[in-house]
Amino acid sequence: MDEVREKKQEIRSEISSFFKSLDSDVLAANTHIIENRLFEFANFLESKIVMLYVNAENEVATDNIIKRAYEYSKIVVLPAFDAAKATMKLMKVDNPDKDLIAGSRGFLEPNPAKCKPVPVDCIDIAIVPGVAMDEKGGRVGSGDGYYDRIIPDLPMTTRKVGLVFEGQLIPQVPMESHDKHVDIIITEKRVIYKI
Questions:
Q1: Position 1 pLDDT exceeds 70
Q2: pLDDT tens for residues 2-27?
Q3: Which residues hold ATP (predicted)?
Q4: Residue numbers of the domain that contains 52
Q5: Does 116 carry a binding-site annotation?
Q6: What is the mean pLDDT of residues 43-48?
Q7: CA quadruple 111, 115, 116, 118: dihedral, nearest 10
Q8: Is 190 assigned a ligand-binding role in the annotation?
């Protein structure tokens, strides 16, 4: 078990170096390509209630994806994290400029005073962050396990989609029993279907 965790830390470190090596113009261009692929993706276009994420370091940026989702008449759901309980609550965000506050992890998240909770079984498509992924849908996250806990609660019909750059794809993610896969991965070069 410790060996797997050590390997994941190595992967996080390698991906951090990959991000630092990227030219900001290349990063922006590739982010835009991934964003456009998502907005051409049939499962995304057909969905009404979309779970997105506010990106952390070493994850595909989502600020523009969140803004564009409103243009496509999506109901945007973002996670609010409870670090003490190691849980996340899904909340409907009507206006990201007014409804987000700095959360316990240091990133923007829904303000519970302004946003309503959304039951997990209402989510049509879940866009899931990852520091690294493999072509089988294995993912390395931040290490807190928030998404590993919520993915099993999503309906079977809810597509779980990971957004990563090609440089974040690794041959094989070391998986532990609690680790959960995504169904589909979108990169700047392709869409990978695990299902």
A1: no
A2: 888 899 999 999 999 999 999 999 99
A3: 8-12, 139-147
A4: 2-193
A5: no
A6: 96
A7: -80
A8: no
What the block records as the tokens of 185 is 């991965």
Residue 16 assigned to a binding site:
no
DSSP code of 120?
A: G
103 annotated among ligand-binding-site residues: no
Burial 37-58 (b: 16+ CB within 10 A, else e): bbeebeebeebebbbbbbbeeb
User: Nearest 5°: phi and psi at 24?
Assistant: -60, -35
pTM above 0.90, yes or no: yes
Average pLDDT (101-115) is: 90
Q: Check residue 132 and report its DSSP letter.
A: E
Averaged pLDDT for residues 120-133: 96
pLDDT at 85: 82
Count of CA atoms in the C-beta half-sphere (13 A) of 8: 21
* 145 annotated ligand binder: yes
Task: Check pLDDT > 80 for residue 60.
Answer: yes
Number of domains in the chain: 1
35 is in an annotated binding site: no
Quote the mean pLDDT of the chain.
93
CB-count burial class (<10 Å; 0-12, 13-18, 19+) for 21: exposed
140 carries a ligand binding annotation: yes
CATH of the domain at 60: 3.40.50.10420
